[in-house]
Amino acid sequence: MPTEQLKEALRLFTKQRDWNQYHTPKNLAMAMSVEMAELVEIFQWKTAKQSAELSQTEQDALADEVADVLIYLTMLADKFDMDPIAEAWRKIEKNRLKYPESE
């Protein structure tokens, strides 16, 4: 399962650097917020059209920030033995019931 492989890789990476001591749920959530702000910054002051037509440099920066957000989200979910992909599917179903299709 790709999520489990990512979790294992992140556990090993942080263990090899003795970073787990810093990766409390609070710190992971705060770090994810910082990375999300960096992602938003890419779109700051752009029109809707400009935000859909990023340069290659901007797309590369966006890819890095998406990865950073995903990494911190995965690490936070791992602290609580959650699979973020499974939780996303659960939430989609919850929203499907809460917001039925229009006819």
Q: Which stretches of 5+ consecutive residues score pLDDT under 50? A: none
CATH architecture: Orthogonal Bundle
Order of helices and strands: HHHHH
Mean pLDDT: 97
Estimate nothing, just give the exact number of structural domains. 1
What portion of residues is helical? Answer: over 70%
Q: Determine the structural class based on helices, strands and strand pairing.
A: mainly alpha
- In the CATH hierarchy, the third-tier topology is known as Helix Hairpins
Number of strands: 0
Radius of gyration, CA atoms, in whole angstroms: 17 Å
* Shape summary: globular
Number of helices: 5
Gap between N and C termini: 37 Å
The level 1 CATH classification is: Mainly Alpha
CATH superfamily, by name, is MazG-like
**Beta-strand percent range:** under 5%
Main sheet record: none
Description:
This protein is mostly helical and 103 residues long. It has a single domain, classed as MazG-like (Helix Hairpins), CATH 1.10.287.1080. It is 76% helix and 0% strand. The chain is built from five helices and no strands. It is globular, with a radius of gyration of 17 Å. The protein starts with a helix and ends in a 5-residue tail after the last helix. The model has no long low-confidence stretch (mean pLDDT 97).
Identify the notable features of this structure and list them briefly:
0% strand; Helix Hairpins; mainly alpha; 103 residues
SSE diagram, text form:
Blueprint: H1 2-16, H2 25-43, H3 48-52, H4 56-79, H5 84-98
Helix pairs in contact: 1-4, 2-4
